[in-house]
Amino acid sequence: MTLLFCSCVLILFPKISLIMKTGASYQGSGILVVDDSIEILEVIKLILEQQGYQVFTKDKPDGIVDFVQNNKIGLLLWMS
């Protein structure tokens, strides 16, 4: 088990909420992680990918709304 402590905002989109309630597969829905530190993004991406998640990263908030709308994002992890 890997524990990661951080100050962040989690935004769950409807698809991931349904998955969490039903225990269905997370396949086909990605996690978008946003942080201004490339090093933190790399570590979080590695940890989540090792658990089988599809992970996208952004180091700037520019274009996040468009990115989420154009990709299958189930969870937005915005680090602060």
Structure description:
- The chain is of the alpha/beta class.
- It has a single domain (8-79), classed as Rossmann fold (3-Layer(aba) Sandwich).
- 36% of the residues lie in helices and 28% in strands.
- It contains 3 helices and 4 strands, in the order βαβαβαβ.
- It has helices at 14-22, 38-50, 64-70; strands at residues 8-12, 30-34, 54-58, 73-79.
- A 4-stranded mixed β-sheet has the order 1-4-2-3, with helices on both faces.
- The longest helix is centred in the middle third of the chain and has 13 residues, at 38-50.
- The radius of gyration is 12 Å and the shape is flat.
- It starts with 7 loop residues before the first strand and ends with a strand.
- Residues 1-5 and 13-26 have low confidence and may be disordered.
**Rg estimate, integer Å:** 12 Å
Helix content: 25-40%
Report how far apart the termini are. Answer: 23 Å
Please give the largest β-sheet. Answer: 4 strands, mixed
Tell me the total number of β-strands: 4
Topology of this structure?
Layout: E1 8-12, H1 14-22, E2 30-34, H2 38-50, E3 54-58, H3 64-70, E4 73-79
Parallel strand pairs: 2-3, 2-4
Antiparallel strand pairs: 1-4
Key words describing this protein structure:
single chain, Rossmann fold, four-stranded mixed β-sheet, 36% helix, flat
